[in-house]
């Protein structure tokens, strides 16, 4: 067993012990040959721990494991880079860029969100344990007469071939293999030099553990070729800690924070009204112990992986194992976040005054009324405005200042809507217009700006 915090005093001893204990339990009860885990706080690797079946030896955070469907998060970032560069639109049908596949009518967004209705797997034999050379063409990834299992856009239905098609889309628009595009555009800028398509020493071997006896069977280390974008990558705890930090905050060299926020919004409504899991654009979402996590799980023969980020806690965690079943790496990663947050809850940022005062914006703050409904407008840093119901509720929204003097809603009900300050003839502030909603300084007044007018008799007693 090893406990390798980095730096050594970043977490309290009791926290490190709890994390190591949970990791050791996962390895023992999951009967996995080895297991490595890590915690990231505020973008930095602050703890890593490992457990192995070999006495006195455990993998370091730089040992490679196969990460399975965590690969999909990398492919999704490549696709969103293409979108942000204007080379495609998420509403584009696949045929516009990659014609002739059984998924011609599926949109890019539907493929990213697993809502295109495509089959979950390729035709037999099972792609994860067979050489990719068995499927040399895109037509081999889906059966033409059985590719669609559900109407497109209606429900989430996980599709591994769908991500193979996204990898081929990247190759078509970039003109080179998706793995090379990934290395140059994402891995190198983020310093992830131990994330590769094929294993590089030192790496773990993958095993199946017998369900009723403590014996093992080596799993094949396949190159899945065209199916690679669905689950081919190998990586390390150190590299995935960098990936977790990127998913949390973005990096303008790769993808901005606003696009990453778009990726982690649910793309298709969950079937369960009390949902515990959902899917965005290449990122899984999960509710766990009262917090919303985003990231991805992964499995390939011989390996399981899990990586989650909790924005509310400023934490991320990951776990990698080298057994086909047993240790639940995704659950372990979620538990490591919960344990760290329980032992060392995030400290709020100190209150600080704004660096400068804009008198015009300050004059906008305070009470505003939509009809008889009281709202409060607050001024935040960077000219950000926040509008919320005085009595609470679900329509609190933040607004980003634009160059033309308007504000754009960032979240909740008013996301994407435009807030305008409407001035009177003398230049004073008359009212606020928010997507045709009129906000005035007093309930239902003045009559000339309230849609439909106001009864000239004014407010009356009963």
From TrEMBL:
Catalytic activity, EC: 3.4.16.4
GO molecular function, one term: serine-type D-Ala-D-Ala carboxypeptidase activity
Keyword Hydrolase: yes
Residue intervals of the Beta-lactamase-related domain: 27-341
Highest taxon in the source lineage: Bacteria
Enzyme class: hydrolase
Family annotation (InterPro entries): AmpC-like, Beta-lactam-related, Beta-lactam/transpept-like, DUF7586
Keyword Coiled coil: no
Coiled coil (UniProt feature): none
Domain DUF7586: 357-441
Keyword field: Carboxypeptidase, Hydrolase, Protease
Name the record gives this protein: D-alanyl-D-alanine carboxypeptidase
Species for this entry: Kitasatospora paracochleata
């Amino acid at each position: 067993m090893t406990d390798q915090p980095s730096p050594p005093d970043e977490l309290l001893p009791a926290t490190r012990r709890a994390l190591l204990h949970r990791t050791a339990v996962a390895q023992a009860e999951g009967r996995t040959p080895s297991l490595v885990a890590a915690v990231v706080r505020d973008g930095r690797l602050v703890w890593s721990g490992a457990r192995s079946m070999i006495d006195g030896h455990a993998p370091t955070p730089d040992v490679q494991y196969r990460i399975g469907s965590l690969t999909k998060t990398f492919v999704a970032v490549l696709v969103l880079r293409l979108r942000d560069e204007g080379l495609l639109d998420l509403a584009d049908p696949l045929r516009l860029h990659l014609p002739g596949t059984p998924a011609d009518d599926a949109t890019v967004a539907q493929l990213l969100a697993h809502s295109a209705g495509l089959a979950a797997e390729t035709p037999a034999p099972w792609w994860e344990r067979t050489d990719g050379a068995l499927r040399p063409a895109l037509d081999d990834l889906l059966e033409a007469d059985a590719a669609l299992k559900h109407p497109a856009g209606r429900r989430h239905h996980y599709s591994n071939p769908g991500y193979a098609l996204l990898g081929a889309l990247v190759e078509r628009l970039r003109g080179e293999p998706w793995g090379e595009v990934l290395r140059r555009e994402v891995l190198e800028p983020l310093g992830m030099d131990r994330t590769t398509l094929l294993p590089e020493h030192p790496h773990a071997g993958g095993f199946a553990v017998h369900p009723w006896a403590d014996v093992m069977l080596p799993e094949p280390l396949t190159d899945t070729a065209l199916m690679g974008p669905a689950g081919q990558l190998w990586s390390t705890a150190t590299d995935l800690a960098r990936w977790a930090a990127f998913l949390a905050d973005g990096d303008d060299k790769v993808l901005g924070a606003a696009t990453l926020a778009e990726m982690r919004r649910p793309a298709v409504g969950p079937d369960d009204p009390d949902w515990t899991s959902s899917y965005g654009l290449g990122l899984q979402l999960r509710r766990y112990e009262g917090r919303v996590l985003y990231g991805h799980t992964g499995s390939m023969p011989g390996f399981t992986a899990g990586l989650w980020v909790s924005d509310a806690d400023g934490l991320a965690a990951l776990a990698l194992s080298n057994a086909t079943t047993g240790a639940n790496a995704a659950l372990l990663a979620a538990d490591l976040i919960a344990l760290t947050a329980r032992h060392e809850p995030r400290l709020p940022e100190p209150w600080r005054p704004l660096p400068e005062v804009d008198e015009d914006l300050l004059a906008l703050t305070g009470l505003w009324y939509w009809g008889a409904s009281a709202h409060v407008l607050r001024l935040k840093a960077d000219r950000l405005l926040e509008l919320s119901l005085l009595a609470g509720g679900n329509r609190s929204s933040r607004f980003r200042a634009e160059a033309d003097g308007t504000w754009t809603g960032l979240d909740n009900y008013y996301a994407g809507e435009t807030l305008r300050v409407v001035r009177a003839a003398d230049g004073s502030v008359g009212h606020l217009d928010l997507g045709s909603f009129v906000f005035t300084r007093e309930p239902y007044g003045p009559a000339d700006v309230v849609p439909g007018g106001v009864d000239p008799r004014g407010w009356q007693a009963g």
